[in-house]
Fold:
Amino acid sequence: MVPLKTTEVTHRAFDPEPDVTAADWRGAIRELAAFDRPSASDGERHAAELIGARLRELGCDVSIEQESAHGGYWWPIGLANGLALAAGVLARRRRDRRGRIVAALAAGMSAAALWDDLGHGRRWFRRAVLPRRATWNVVAKAGDRSAEHTVVFVAHHDAAHSGLVFHPALGRIGPRLTPRMHDRSSHTLPILYGVWLGPVAVSAGAALGWWPLVRLGVLFAGGAIAAMTDIGAHPVVPGANDNLSAVGVLVALADALRENPVDGVRVLLVSTGSEESFSEGMQAFGERHFDSLPRDRTEVVCLECLGGPILIVLEGEGMLRMRDYPESMRDELEQAATQAGVAIRRGIRTVAATDAIIALRAGYPVVTLASVDVTKLPSNYHWPSDTADALHWETISDAIAVCDRFLRRSTARDTLLAVH
Structure:
């Protein structure tokens, strides 16, 4: 077992001149993309240490916080669907009242566990039945340390496993077959319903004695198990776009704050671990820090997949239930882009999830800055082609400018936050 909630704190360096290599955010991305960084792994820890060292050299007070996470999502989803599949087989074989009740309850529990896990809730299922290991968050303090108003920028440094469901060709089907519908839509097909509907169908079918529905649920559950097995068996991708591009923005912001300090706002530059296991690192950050971050004096900006061709203000997110960010935060990020002279697109939501969902559920003003390509998906999403050479570096530079402008506009928003 790993120790829970222990913290290693490294104090601020006193060298008045920043290391030029530490400020090289492009070099930081390439350095981190050169080795594997699965969630809750030694590679993730090494990445956290390298990021922390760069931010420390740029004048930040840096803590590398060890937390506890399962480190994957294929086991929770696969096990829940396995229970539903077994329940469906039991119901179809026995077809008596007792068998139907047992199957309906078991599959219903699976559906409830998945709704909670996919919705970034308490995660009671995975915490009860699955092992946990160490994961590492980087938390760097910058800006005006004594200010009451705090802006938190969140990236993550772990990388995702690939899988056939992430094949880039799948994302191009919609734009090719139904281009007008694709242009009008705010998000892509919510495919994660596919891992939840199996248990729902088995539970409802068993309760009603409707065997075709049970059969359909068994098929969905079997498909979900196959997909999760495939993802778990695949290696991790380089993760340059998802999400080292955002880590590069953190490094650039630290450099900008060193060169041109800001008054009246405290800045937290956070890079989480285990984001790819459904934001377990961000959840741990919240458990540790949210009590000390007042909701009426804190803004959260999530940085996600910033190396694509089209920079966007993400409107909302949700794997099963769509949740929009506060309109004031979305408008503010757009205005920051306008002042920075950066073109930015509105109107797109994601049916995946980011670390922002944890802060949103906790009641914070939050928004996500991201990028997509013409498919309305992140470029090279969870695919081996997500390398540094595939990045649109100019988009990352634009994201840095937008974040810097958002931050320097924040003092004027302090009064508005008091009545949020």
About this structure: The two ends are 42 Å apart (CA to CA). The first helix runs from residue 25 to 33.
